[in-house]
Amino acid sequence: MWGETFDDFENDEGEMAMAKQNLIAEPARADFTFAKLPLGIQPVDFMKTHFAETAGKSMQFRKGTTTLAFVYEPATPADKGGIIVAVDSRASSGEYISSKSVMKILDIGDRMVATMAGGAADCQFWTRIVAKYCTLYELREKTSITVSAASKYFANTLYGYRGQGLSVGSMVAGYDKKGPQIFKVDSEGDRCQLKVCSVGSGSLNAYGILDNHYKPKMTDDEARKLGLRAIMHATYRDSGSGGVCNLCHITPTEKIRLPPMDVSKLWYEFADELGRDITYNPVE
Amino acid sequence: MNAHDEVQRTLNPTCTGTSVIALQYKTGVVVLTDRVVSYGKMARYKNVSRQYKVNDNVLIAFGGDHADFHWLQNVIERQVLLWKRFDQDIGPKALHGYLTSLLYAKRCKMNPVWNTLVVAGVEEEEKNNKETSTPFIGVITQKGCAYQVKHIATGLGAFLLNQAVEDEWRKKGEDLSREEAEAVLRKSLELTLYHDCVADNEFEIGRVDATEGVVLGKEEKIIGDWSIAETNCQYE
Amino acid sequence: MTSFTGITAVANATNEMAMFKQAMKEVAAHPEWMSSRQIERQRWNPYSMEGGSTCAISGENFAIVASDTRMTQNDINILTRDAEKIQILNDNIILTTSGFYGDVLQLKKVLQSRLHKYRFDYRSDMSVDLCAELLSRNLYYRRFFPYYTGAILAGIDEHGKGAVFSYDPIGCIERLGYSASGAAEPMIIPFLDCQIGHVTLSEGYERPELTLDRAISLMKDSFRGAAEREISTGDKIHLVIAEAGKPVVVKFLPLRED
């Protein structure tokens, strides 16, 4: 512990072999030892008592979101196709907006992202665990992990904490050897593959726009507009969502993060496009 | 169930002490406690000291559960002996830190030590140089919330006396003499006596001085001026 | 045993399983071995709120952190007027925490010891980015028994730029230009949004540059404003100024004491 003698160096080879062995083996399920409440206290009840509305405004966990993702095919050869992931950027603690600039698209790998809905801290923490697993997988297997496998690992990990009050609603989206894929994963341990998907408090509003305008084949411009449009409308109807719209376009070759767009400005943009005056006109 | 219920349903302490008042003066600290341990509103045990001499530099006074404090005395004694093994005398700062961790750890097990502790002492900055020693008062609540102060009143005194003691302190600040500090404490006890039904008129003033070390106080009595009762009663 | 037909057997089995699960749930919530003393103990509130507010602003080459020094009991009774909520962890990392003071102290201790170990292991000071992630993790490790704190970590990052990281009680992390936490957060943030974020300024208007002097005056203003309207904020402003390449400066400024 305190220093090395020369004898210790002779063990190096043995240690190297051991390290290699460890590297080849499948890493164990993330086994964190979280500080626990004394036996018999249910974390869910405990949180409800101390961190719900009765707690001070700043003591509530950050949450609230609209996130969406969809897969589309290119309409013309000039387009790239792939996946559009669009999210808002609001985090609220109760009625207080504790942040208006959260990045809710978290990187998992070069070609994969996870979105964040539900408890912000839960998503951030567990996404990193998944990212670590994926990186290790890539190093070990010398091939990048599939979206399916990554999301499965994510879901399994969350399942291990089921009923303990985690709150995660995430979409793992990415391009792998099987093509563009989106998996929705949540803290109940649920996991399912979808083409068009939206999660969060504003998801229903987003679905309304998305289902209306979605086509399996779109140009890149159309697809990006659709993502923006759905998020914009969701933020206007859902008070838990707002801020800017972050958009990520995963194409077969690259991952493009578009600059954030203020949803207030988007509103005027779409109003212009529809040829409609933004003032309410009951006669029309 | 709402948040207020659980405060009421808490496992209540049984035999309790009330206020502790402590004040720092030029070369040390004076600590005043009354000498009663109550069982609810009943004055269950009289002539009980609520101050504990740890060593020549440290004195601890407590408010809250008497049994828990007895347990703490054992723990503290062990800690002192542990330091002795390394030929060290535990100082007030170190003990304050240790007790903070202890109380916080117990809180995390949802099994709190039901005490408000006042660690009074003289911190030796240099070994065997009394000139550089500084007075120290540290407070720890049962949840492990700890802070250092120049003057303190705990228990009901926190509501009654904190400002009164602070005003006295601000008049002289660091230059307060021991006699003046003790006078402030006596006056403060008189005030608790009028308004705190579990406070007693028998009390003791312990002190920790840079030169004299810990001097535990003798039992004293105060009657107070009850003529103010005439102006403060609605029950005739 | 009533029937040997498959369907009833399955129905019975699922029913039994459901009942078993229910029983397990109940017994987990109220184990029989638990004495009334233990049940009482669980209802005890391990948290208290000592009030106060903290705030941090970062600029091009500086970060300033401020908090008030009041500590209250039940938001009403002032326990002390000089409780420190800011910890200078090293030359370029400053932690400031509001909330339950026991947790504030614990968090400080955890980070201090981790930083100490880092110095021992790597023979250099930790950078603020690393420490920010470390803090986030440590907050999350208490996910099921959280720290009752709103933490802000500020400092000078590896590129000499000011950095402010804001957290929720369980470690949701975000790097921001400015942040506040504690009782007066909903008062300070709109003020800073207006003055630093310029969210209320139309386009085309001149936006004053955020210099150190301006940041300090804004900080003073926000605390003086909060002390006017928030009960658990007051007494003194504890101001810590970190500028790239300069030692950390600590100041105490008076504030309303009522």
Automatic annotation (TrEMBL), chain B:
It comes from the Eukaryota. GO terms for biological process: proteasome-mediated ubiquitin-dependent protein catabolic process. Keywords: Cytoplasm, Nucleus, Proteasome. It holds the Pfam family Proteasome. The keyword Ligase does not apply. It is found in: Cytoplasm; Nucleus. InterPro entries: Ntn_hydrolases_N, Proteasome_beta4, Proteasome_sua/b, Proteasome_suB-type. One of its GO terms (cellular component) is cytosol. The 26S proteasome consists of a 20S proteasome core and two 19S regulatory subunits. The 20S proteasome core is composed of 28 subunits that are arranged in four stacked rings, resulting in a barrel-shaped structure. The two end rings are each formed by seven alpha subunits, and the two central rings are each formed by seven beta subunits. The catalytic chamber with the active sites is on the inside of the barrel. Belongs to the peptidase T1B family. Non-catalytic component of the proteasome. This is Proteasome subunit beta. The gene is pbs-7.
